Amino acid sequence: MIHDRDTKFSVEFKQFLKNKGIQPKRLPIRSPNLNARVERFVQTIKYEALNHFIAFGPRHLDYLVSEFVDYYNKHRAHSSRKHLPPCCAEPPPEFETIRLDEIHCEEHLGGLIKSYERIAA
């Protein structure tokens, strides 16, 4: 768990997390951009994935989060990267026309999110 240096994260709270097997990590001093990035990612995962499911325990929640993180890093378009995923080194080649039978639909999170790709020749 990553958190800022707010006083609401008391010693008792940190000890509770450690007892549950969760390693709390505090953000460095004077790093407001890191906190904003963490909060934005938490908002993104909540709105794009977790709000659409009822998690049936920690194992199911871990599965949903890991599936979304995989999708987020390998498939989801990011506007700051010219709509490329973070793990993509170069933009895909451009095609003039694509027939429907050349398109493959890949589903993530049980069909909640769909990605479309051109089938390799």
UniProtKB/TrEMBL annotation:
<dbReference type="InterPro" id="IPR001584">
    <property type="entry name" value="Integrase_cat-core"/>
</dbReference>
<dbReference type="GO" id="GO:0015074">
    <property type="term" value="P:DNA integration"/>
</dbReference>
<dbReference type="Pfam" id="PF13683">
    <property type="entry name" value="rve_3"/>
</dbReference>
<dbReference type="InterPro" id="IPR036397">
    <property type="entry name" value="RNaseH_sf"/>
</dbReference>
<dbReference type="GO" id="GO:0003676">
    <property type="term" value="F:nucleic acid binding"/>
</dbReference>
<feature type="domain" description="Integrase catalytic">
    <location>
        <begin position="1"/>
        <end position="93"/>
    </location>
</feature>
<dbReference type="InterPro" id="IPR012337">
    <property type="entry name" value="RNaseH-like_sf"/>
</dbReference>
<protein>
    <submittedName>
        <fullName>Transposase</fullName>
    </submittedName>
</protein>
